[in-house]
Design goal:
- By secondary structure, this protein is of the alpha/beta class.
- The protein has helices spanning 36-43, 66-74, 89-94, 103-112, 123-129, 137-142, 165-186, and strands at residues 25-30, 51-55, 95-100, 120-122.
- α1 (36-43) crosses α7 and α2 (66-74) crosses α7 (165-186).
- The longest helix is centred in the last third of the chain and has 22 residues, at 165-186.
- The radius of gyration is 15 Å and the shape is globular.
Length: 187
């Protein structure tokens, strides 16, 4: 359920009544699609584009953990109905932006799907480097040379998997700050 009480599609995280057949999406990407990409996806739902969340190594259809749910709630968000989703060709084809949570996810895209590397970046890099509009997002992404930029350790949002509740909350707080800074740049 979204913050305004409307329902969402479990995989896409967009309003159920939205027509996504022609949509250009933002794809949030982490490893298991169980914490970071789910959190970022929920936090970006108020943005201008539909959100899809996925992972690079997923057991398909799993619910998010209690810790992820509680961490999201602690910063005022939810992702009710979420089920883990392995990234697909269709996800990448539809995405104007593949928003990685760590360098390993950027590397995965570059290695397995180099044709979309030019629109794949870490959330921290985009917050730092993405110019504001009014140019279309795809044009602004192109100016960054994302397929060739060296990905650095500072770009990682640490994976909370295996951590206690406080680690998950810390991750949610970091992502809430990053997403709040990124949202105006996506418009």
């Amino acid at each position: 359920m979204l913050n305004d009480g409307t329902t969402t599609d479990a995989v896409l995280g967009v309003p159920a009544e939205a027509d996504v057949t022609q949509a250009v999406t933002v794809l949030t990407l982490c490893t298991g699609n169980a914490a970071r990409s789910v959190m970022a996806g929920a936090m970006l739902l108020d943005g201008p584009l539909p959100i899809v969340t996925a992972g690079t190594h997923v057991i398909e259809g799993q619910p998010m953990s209690r810790r992820t749910r509680a961490a999201l709630a602690s910063v005022g968000f939810s992702a009710d109905g979420h089920r883990s989703h392995q990234i697909t060709e269709a996800d990448m084809d539809d995405a104007v932006l593949i928003l990685a949570m760590a360098a390993e996810h950027v590397a995965y895209i570059r290695r397995k799907h180099p044709e979309v590397a030019h629109r794949t970046a870490s959330i921290k890099r985009l917050v730092r480097d993405l110019p504001a509009g009014p140019s279309p997002l795809a044009d602004r992404l192109a100016t960054l040379g994302l397929a060739d930029v060296e990905v650095e350790p500072w770009e990682d949002v640490e994976d909370p998997a295996g951590g206690d509740d406080a680690v998950y909350v810390s991750c949610a707080e970091e992502l809430a700050d990053l997403c709040a800074r990124l949202l105006p740049l996506l418009r």
